[in-house]
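Work Package 3 (structural annotation) set out to generate three-dimensional models for the target panel prioritized at the project kickoff. During this period the team completed the workflow that converts sequence records into discrete structure tokens, so that structures can be stored uniformly alongside our sequence database. As a representative example, we reproduce one entry of 127 residues exactly as it appears in the project archive.
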Amino acid sequence: MLFQWEVGQHPAPYVLQSFLGGRELAPDVEGFARALFEGTVQEVSTLDRLIAGQSQHWRVERMAAIDRNVLRLALYELLHYPETPPAVVMNEALELARRFSGEESVEFVNGVLDAIRKSLPQTKPTA
């Protein structure tokens, strides 16, 4: 959805409807997908600043669109869903990069995300 939103320059409601409309998803899965997408879109400027601060020699706008959006999504989840272990968030991001980008992107996403994760204040998940 983030790729469609950014590259297609479509409004978020359009992307949600075109991507989720007609799919039969469990309510909790659809709700989580919506929350991640909408939250990431709302905080894209803040997320991009954090990414830029840890991606040496790479401006965010020059990154591959898939990599940039995988980083945004994972970072949003790291910041707003402390109940999800960081290792799980990172693994999911690496799987997305591997599936939709390439092996070099996996290393890039891993390096940037790990640097960001280490710079964040440590929080304990809520039970």
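Helices lie at 2-7, 12-20, 27-42, 44-54, 65-80, 86-100, 103-119.
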